[in-house]
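Can anyone check this?
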Amino acid sequence: DNLRREAHQRMEAGTTCWLAGQCEQGGPYKHDAEINADVVAAIQADHRLTDTTIWVETLRTYVTLSGCVRNHGQQHALDALVKARPRVKIVWDNTHIGTRPR
């Protein structure tokens, strides 16, 4: 049932995008690997985030961040950095403050 619902949502999103003339050939998944690599490189290059452990997943230009940061300042810096990356539409920040998830 979950797979059927997910397939329906994908088809509906694709059809809506296509009818509105907002889709490029190859769909929204086409650039996920490039976006993911760009986000990872930006995080690695930012000196404010050197003592963090972050996992990045990109699906349909939506980026999910998981892992641990040391404080709220790092969490906000990470969120702002990723939101500012080209082609990133939405950022879901699932990071935790401290060394262990809640």
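Reply from J.R.: I decoded it. The helical segments are 2-19, 32-45, 72-83.
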